[in-house]
Protein 1
Amino acid sequence: MAFLRAYRFPLILLAAIALGSVIGFILGPKSAVLKPLGDIFLNLMFVIVVPLVFVTISSSIANMSSLKRLGKIVGWMLLIFVVTGIISSLLTLGAVKMFNPAEGVNITLEEPEGQEEITLGEQLVQTVTAPDFRDLLSKERMLALILMAALFGIAVSQAGEKGEMVARGLSSLSEVLIKLVGIILWYAPVGLGAYFAALVGEFGPQLVGSYARAVAVYYPVALLYFAVFFTLYAFLAGGGRGVRRFWSAIPSPAVTALATGSSVATIPTNLTAAAKLGVKKDVRDVVIPLGATIHMDGSCISAILKISFLFGLFNIPFEGIDTYLTAILIAVLSGVVMSGVTGGGFIGEMLIVTMYGFPAEALPILAVIGTLVDPPATMVNASGDTVASMLVSRFTEGKDWMKNAWKEKA
């Protein structure tokens, strides 16, 4: 009974997704008629996420006692993002060496559609800045929004007494927005069930086609990383207590990420989960939004899979230290660095093609794989932000951070 009370909402979400999947398999492409119900939920989440991110980040920084603490939080956060990206890449490297994802696959190469040429420098400018204030208020400009929120929070903090009222107002508004998220989530079972029905109806046939083996490799690896390594990270962050509380808090954001395929849409539920874990406000309000943009362990796993798949498709042996190190470098760049750049997924795929000398016709193949593995990849990406906030708390607060947080709650 206690289990049902603790996991009631995630179980409802899972039941809705399972029902949607069955409907999608039965109706096939006709299930697209349900997609608007899913789009309504996604739109609601995307609308709330922009003000939520701006307010939570600026509020946390404005209320920090020292900006030195902000530097400490960001420093540990970036280190953790890179290390977990390397670990997920190494795990996948071992998996694809055991099970070649392209074995027996025969795919006809097609010319990719024309892509607009844009330099990396231009991409970076578009990612960290916006040409107009109205352009800043978009989920497509998330890094620029986060940067401006941080600068605004610093300005409020430096304003001294005159900024105190603004800081209090931001803190209150943050609480109101969290309550609004709770209201929107009441619609989640309907929205996620409908969205998954449309997704399975559209891509179901490809799951049993040429890409089945790649999917069959990715899904178990992603689930293994999620179950085993996130448990290990939670243990490092808070011992046995950390593991128990992580698994009590993570189902809702994990299921939300799995169904929506969006780390950004999962920010609200991730913030709630981190708060439930006892992660301090200034830590969770910095790590969770930034993690949704630049922390992608699931994408690191995907990058290694894509590289191995192309090697097998072109009958090239996937072996050698240089090949492995290059693969890990590309995976980390794709999952931690490029993921924050507009069109970062495409840039990561271009890196794979150009650094190994594959023909441009390979790009559509990588795009299809990316689409098919997106649900579990996003689940790993988003859930990794929550466990990363726990690790950041461990290194900034000390080993008793969780015990102290629960004492404060009591």
Protein 2
Amino acid sequence: MASKSGRKVIVTCAVTGAIHTPSMSPHLPVTPDEIAENAIAAAEAGATVIHLHARDPQTGRPTQDPAAFQEFLPRIKQNTAAVINLTTGGSPHMSIEERLRPASHFKPEVASLNMGSMNFGLFPMLDRFQTFQHEWERQHLENSRDLVFKNTFKDIEHILKTCSGNGTRFEFECYDISHLYNLAHFLDRKLVTPPLFVQSVFGILGGIGPHPEDVMHMRRTADRLFGDQYVWSVLGAGRNQMPVASMSLALGGNVRVGLEDSLWAGPGRLATSNAEQVRIVRSLIEGLSLEVATPEEARAMLSLKGGHNVNF
């Protein structure tokens, strides 16, 4: 699917996530103020969609307590027109019921949905980061040696049925080829409806790699399974962020950046904000004579219900 001049590109920015820990970067947003400020600045820099997790403001530990999200969601909504996307991934260490709480309560336009169980190895980061402010950080990484991120067919169906009645649509996170086939299964059963927003994830240990052939394989497989019924986006983990984004842009796709996925803004250089990564990817987009989609254009492309139809 070739790109064409003037095509609109959806830029998602994932502001904090649950992978990186506070000791890894002083720029990782942790408090409600930091998360709100980073999200608003990312939107001002051009992010179309803001993907949000919450953290305990004292320890930086991921939390799915709706009260934590309530601290920043209204502020982001009031100060941006961006599409707000809430996680149902939470952290791989959480139960499905815990992970579902924010999306179920706040009824966002978009929620992320992981499309299969997988090993989720973060432990190699122990070789790069030696000292930690909080004991949970080391354990978080060490425990991933024996961690399966559980997303069974029952789990996925439960999230779909819980959120679909709220008009929430999904960012289907596909970490491997099998996840595309899982999504095709739910499409066959009519539990999901096009246009499907497929987010292909590259470079997580346990999922598909970031090689150009891997990116092409994901694209070809999604084209074959979904034809014109989907909108494709990619994220590359760590240093793969911008190379994978560039490949997606060349293949007619969309992009996701943000400190959830990568702490970097260049070789050995920490990104000072989420907005910095948005500006970098925006320069790639505009250098290819493409345009960043506005939030309203993204709402049309993804058939969203609109920012006024949420519970925050």
Protein 3
Amino acid sequence: MTVQAYDPLAGERTPGSPQFDVFLAGTVFLDIIFTGLPAMPAAGTEIWADGMGSCPGGIANLAIATSRLGLRTSLAAAFGDDDYGDFCWRTLEEQESVDLSRSRRFEHWHSPVTVSMAVDRDRSMVTHGHPSPMSASEMIGKPPCSKAVIVTLSDDEPLGTPGSACNWAELAHRDGALIFADVGWDPSGSWSSGVLEQLSICHAFMPNAVEAMAYTRMDTPRDALYAIADHVPVAVVTDGANGAMAIDSTTGEEAFVPAPRVNALDPTGAGDVFGAGFVLGTLCGWPLNDRVAFAQVCAALAVQQFGGSLAAPGWGDIADWWHEVRATARHSGAYGSSLARRYAFLDRLVPTDPVGAVRRAAATIARYADVGVAPQPQPGGEVTPVTDAGSRKEGPRDEAPAHDDGDPGTSRVPAQKE
């Protein structure tokens, strides 16, 4: 049976709408993730991991997160001509429906690789790679027409610098795209306040609490939020398990949403997933409180799984979570009732079966998703639903992204409930 993907922006699309909802650029890594390690290996020893996964990482985390939420996503990135590059390209383009028309393959440039090892809810990483053979602006040229672009602010290629050539994000902004900005960790420890000057052409800035306080020189996340709101129309500060807060100066709204209570296993990529959810809510025109709440639940679903792009939820995962929250609200105490009230807006958003709702992938690097195959009986009489996991491509031979072979957290079964 052929199913159609769920499109949350279907009601907003017109013949004159931009070609893409989101355009972004950056570095794609091949991520190899080992989970369930009892400890880090000592020198000269070997240990076995309970689970292992392979997937595109880096900027691919964000591209996959937006695509799984139904946003038409285009990515510009350099890819090597090795097997790692082949795998990352194929996974993004064929399996995750990310447009790569502005990306390029480079001969004799090998793909950056990161090995991540998860031990006791923490992770250590080893990365190897070389600078991209070409800058993002040179690779992209004129960006495709899009509703939004997501950028990471840095001093290397700053936005809005007087007298300098426009970079790709500024060109996209001139064509009407909203710029959503994030920022990375500053290993130098200087936390240059000049980064905030780049926000003059941005629509939203979404740092975490540590970054926000460091760049604004404030002592609390809330004070940092107010300082950021002086620079950009929409200010958002995420604070892990404490929740997220935001100010939308264009509407006068302020919001604080506590994070849903979850068993957090791995925070990798949670910020990307949050950003994807917030961008979607903005493009849909939702109230600020709903935008933050939706982004929060997307991130909460992600941190219950291991791995960056492996953990990004689709609408199928969100629907599973919401149906469970709603069904158990009367029996789960005051917190459950509060959660059901806070997320009541999902009633008009979550897809109903069957809609081709995206769920996390469950196939390995060399296997195919069982799209359209009848649900498989499981021990104890339970049934595992077989869906187009992690892909919106149609047909029975859609290859799904690599997954965590040994960890049940990334299977096709519904996401772990709260």
Protein 4
Amino acid sequence: MMADDHTDGHMAGFTLSKEDDAARAARIELESKGETGRPFNRAMQHGERVVKIRCGADIKPLPITWLWPGWVPAGKLTILAGAAGTGKTTLALALAAVLTAGGRWPDGTLCNGKGNVLIWSSEDVADDTLVPRLIASGADLARCHFIEGIAQDGESVPFDPSQDIPDLRRAAEAIGGVSLLLIDPIVSAVAGDMHRANDVRRSLQAVVDFADAHGCAVIGITHFAKGGAGKAPQDRVIGSQAFGALARMVLVTAKEEGSNRRVMARAKSNIAPDDGGVAYSLELVAIAGGIEATHAVWEGVIDGTAREILGDVEHDDTGDGGEKLDAEQFLRGLLAGGPLPTRQIKVDADGAGYSWATVRRAQKSLGILAVKGGMKEGWTWQL
């Protein structure tokens, strides 16, 4: 059954069936002849129609499953966004390497099981860019697979997620399942205008359904819109806000001016804490054959909201040197008696007239440690 066009697949809160392959083929053939099919009319249906309702008591609650606990959920879409030069692709490949070879995630947690990775990139070539970076990151290449198009009638045509997800499912099963799908950039999966919410939702729904059906994490890489510094990080993602709305997790990256240091932070999460980040840098190494490739080097976890973490590295602090020195003295005195919760430091700093960005720069200058407690304790700072 096809959904009415104006409902976008939904009617009064109830999901209707999507257009199947046969119906799509018939519609395309009609359109090619300059004809259109008759609009769907419920009066044309026969038999009794019953609204399907499911009782909550019959639903077994399930826990969220994770690829990288707290950061990349399995079976769901994650958006990885940032400005040019932050190494988003290299960062994503480093995460793929952890999954394929085992080891530890950027926050130090252990990868509980190895898995296969599917990579669909329309910007970088596998031979001279992606594979060398995977090798430099320590990936098991036997678990890394690349989508290179669709073979049809002896010819190769571009992969189109709006039509080719059923074929991708069969290909995924043939390689023994997939734990992670990388799409670089995620706008490649959008058929239509990436600034229109309906186009984005309609196109990405096939990707979201694939993730759910296979328990596969999807990381879609994208850019920040220009001139967005200082805005809420999730709102800086280029294109329609539907990208961030469809994703269960949005990760954002930024680069520190005049330094090789970069940061990644959680900007949005419906299923885990939505603060905290990790620092990393990019290093160039030589692999077999004298080929040079970049890889990510993890530099530990950092606390704060995404806005604070990005603001700490994106803004120049040369104009408030005196205020920063005062903030350093303030922090020394505040922490002289021992560690304090970050939320208490924020309250005291606000009362003393210091902006949080200035306090964060003073924290970095003094080398003050941020320590993560349990889920209820939160972060603490200590000299």
